[in-house]
Amino acid sequence: MKTAIAKHLAALILAGGAFAAPASASSAEKLPPVEKVSVEASESGLGFGFWANNRYSERVFDDFGRRPYERFGFFSWNSIERAPGQYDTHKIIEGVQLLHRLGTTPIISLNNISGPWFNRAKKSQIPAFYPQDITDQKTRAAGLRYIDRVIREVLEATGSLVVCFDYEMMWHCRPDTPEKQQLLHDWFLEAVAAARGAAAEIGLSEQLKIIPIVNGAVDTPTTLKLLNSPAENHTPARWLTDMVSVCDYLAIDSYDFDKEDPTNPEKTLRTLAFWIRNYSLGKPVLVTEFGYSTGVSYYPDYKTHYHATGTEEQQHDFYAALFPRLVEENRPGGLLNGQVRCFCLWMYSDISTKKSTPARENHFGMIRLDGSRKPSFELVHREIDAIESDPQSAPSRERARERLTDKQLGEGIAMRYGSGCDYDYLQFDTRECPSGTYTVSVKYAHPGALLIRSAGKWYRSTDEQRTHSLTVEVDGEGLQLYATGSRFPFEQRIEKIEWKRDNNTEKR
After folding, report:
1. For the purposes of burial, counting CB atoms within 10 Å of the CB of 216, is it exposed (0-12), middle (13-18) or buried (19 or more)?
2. Between 20 and 30 A from 36 (CA), which of 16, 198, 267, 495?
3. Tens digits of per-residue pLDDT, 321-332?
């Protein structure tokens, strides 16, 4: 019987699921000392995320814990407006809500006007029932209605949003003539105005953050042609700085690396530095994509084009060199000038080789297709933990801390979760608790999700409900409890917490 229970517990712990311990095995215990801690986004912090696209989001949580950010979704206009005036936003809403329940801030992209008129390699994002020309009066009006509707519906359902319009414009739009630059410039400014107008009408202006995503190696003729100025002594392109000026952050996708020295991150850092120096306008910066493909381990004869590509060992060595340099250069006066707040790795896991993309696109992950871990996994895990736990580089800083009395616990505890960097949590002091397996039961005033970190592991119950029970391992390192929900900012009241130890699983 004990063996069966232990096996069931182990399976549930691995899955991050809930489990109510048998009454005969557990007894209610007094809660250990608990503090309510409030944190806010640090003006000098650096937080990490991944591309997981909902498919792997819960696995990212299980492996890396609650993330400050996650890159999520490429949604085209023609995939959302399937018939004139009929908009399907459920995939965006469901994806953002799941990530909110996992405690993260998602960053999404709406791809609206790219097509063969910009870049011959790109398919049109404009619905087929409109003239395929964003300068056409009918199409332009429809595009602005679509922006208004999407922003309005998603914001009302999720409470907050970080969104890019027409991401990686240097590639997808490739505005390589003054006419194309003006076209992109004018549309972007109108789209931003429409989005902000929609947010204002529903009283959520402060909860909408808009980014442009630039990309490209700055030592290539293609990128420099778009910017109309050499990399050295660069004169920023007015069409692009105008676009950044109406946004909240600058965002950068970069896969630049030195083909002659494939484990050296200096070229990556200098590419980021170019964009920050010339186009950030002093605003915070989000690195929304960077990755290193291990395609050479699978295709030894593969010759890289522009993406960072090597073997699994070279991926490991590149990241080993990159992370310390990110921290070093993301200080005032460094190459990144202390402006980078977010760094998202492309990607968490390899993707199916059945996709029609080039081979390199399938192997950016730290997890192989069979679920096994590449050499880089443990390194990246360790580096992220070190950076995010260091007060000098952590994405959040402590704002307030309060020891809770029994009376306060009995009256209920008010909790808030504003974003992946701005939230409350409960800190339990478990130094005097016998090590072992415990069932933590929580009752809320209204439905929400529950996240717990204990003994170096993360646990989740992401269905929105009023009561949750999670079976967790406890040691002397403390336990953190987070109350989250689908809509940020999320406010909750914890009405009751129960703490039961399973005597059959006490550590020896």
Report:
1. buried
2. 16
3. 999 999 999 999
